[in-house]
Amino acid sequence: MTQLSLDLVAFHRQRRPAFVRRAERELNNRADAEEVVDLAFEQIALSWPKILSMASPAAYAWSILRNRIKDRIKARGHTLDRTLLYDNLAFETLALRTAVDPIGELEESLALAEAVAALPERQRDVIILYYYECYPVAAIAEYMGIAPATVRSTQRNALRRLKGALTPEREQTP
């Protein structure tokens, strides 16, 4: 086995779990998620020498995964309606599990899921990886192939957007 093959095997082992979680979150189906991730890694393997020469192999691999997910959604005959894809985020909060008013909490969780779904792709990825998947900033930076400072900046911008989307206008004015 060549060193290149060992690098690819290590890359696959390290990244596959997060890739499957990301795909499953959008596709709402574990088997589809695993198949999409396998297709993404096939594409990565075919271009591995080229990918290794890039400034950020992780970012390129992440974009391949995102494109494969989009392809699967389109193949199902669905649109890329993020609201439908992320409704399950509303049901995954600790607050909902421990709420005194579960219906009120569910309404807030659904609103948050819709707002997260409406974020630009990079901001959505950072929010989901940080708040829902509980990855530290350094791991997010590595998975997405961006600097930790970029993750933090993207997170701040996303939180600002979320606050704007979730705060009634009367509360936003000073």
Briefly summarize what is shown.
The chain has 174 residues and is an all-alpha fold.
Describe the structure.
With 174 residues, this protein is an all-alpha fold. Helix content is 76%, strand content 0%. It has 11 helices and no strands. The longest helix has 25 residues. The N and C termini lie far apart (64 Å). The mean pLDDT is 82.
Summarize model confidence as the mean pLDDT: 82
Q: N- to C-terminal separation?
A: 64 Å
Strand content: under 5%
* Helix coverage percent: over 70%
Helix count from the secondary structure assignment = 11
Low-confidence stretches: none
What's the SSE pattern? Answer: HHHHHHHHHHH
The biggest sheet, with number of strands, parallel, antiparallel or mixed sense and barrel status, is:
none
**Assembly state:** single chain
What labels would you give this structure?
mainly alpha, 11 helices, 174 residues
